[in-house]
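## Example record

The block below lists the input lines for one assembly entry, exactly as stored, with component labels intact.
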Amino acid sequence: MSANDHDRWRELIGLAALAPLDPAEDAELRAHLADCSWCRRDAEHLRAMAALLPAADPWSAAVEPDPALRERIVAAVGDTRRRDTRRDRLQRALAVAAAAVFLVGVGAVLNRPAPGPTLEEVALADVPADVAADAALITHTGGTELVLTVDGLQDGQDYVVTFVSDAGERVSAGTFIGVDDRPVVCRMNAAVLRNEASAFEVATPDGRLVMRADI
Amino acid sequence: MLGDDAGVRAAYDAHGAELYRFCLRLLGDRGAAEDAVQETFVRAWRAADRYDPARASLRTWLFAIARNVVIDASRVRASRPPVAAQDGDHEPTTQDAVDRVLLACGLETALREISTDQRHAIMEIAYRGRTSADVARELGTSDSTVRSRLFYGLKALRTTMQQMGWTDVG
Ligand SMILES: [Zn+2]
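Predicted structure tokens for the full assembly:
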């Protein structure tokens, strides 16, 4: 079997996949396929491929998306990447913070016959979209402690934490400085009893509210 | 791979337009299709650690995600009360319908990738139902040249489809 012969078989195989051959060519090809496993395999492959063709509309216009979509997607994935990274880092920081509180608790139990502190999880509101934060309270005999873990705040910016009592009195719990490349864990104490505290706020010194919680 | 902006741009440049056509055909609305493509890339980034380039091409993987995004989006649309639905009676898109469009988009992309001569032969004979002799006469070439283009065109189409992730092309 020469290469030239196979050119001839290929012409028949390609056409046969798409249209009926005339009887003479059909008989000729069948006879060859009975003998040649190579061509038999080609014929099967091309028939299977040709059978899919009706699924497509090859004249359908290749509609292009709005050119702005590209950068919109780059921005959306970038936002998600930053948010997810912050959430992951926050989870790790929280695990460390929880372990530290647990150790403090164990120490307290050993030193005096009082129950160790329990963390009271608090839901934060108004947290900016690119900030991840988590808050918990610890009730002390003489006041309330806030354990705030926060990631994504403005680097070098001062933040003021203020508790609000049931009576509307504002009690400072202190200030901390933001860092933007890792989560900060702040532990702040306010001279307001837990059962008299109704909210706390995190704000900039000029009064811009960053996040808050009703407790 | 989607780990930085350059990676997202590269993936979008390679597959964004085709993903968009796929979503547009199923959702029938440019805005919804754009949202679906965006959601596809966001989900892809979230699942990037589960992507194994040794097992699937980036295209296959993105289309698998887009398929789920479109099914989710069409469920949301179908569950809207009829008063709010302004785009007619949108049935929830079935997986069969999605897979048919997936195949159609894949074929149309593959047809654009093979050589112009081969595509022309396939279009005229497979889709327009002309004879190879007729096409040859029009091109001023031999019948056997046109038939040969059919053979190599179908082969190239099959290889392209396989590279795009289709395993059931014979
Ligand atoms: Zn042979």
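Chain A has a mean pLDDT of 84. Residues 68-111 of chain A form the longest helix (44 residues).
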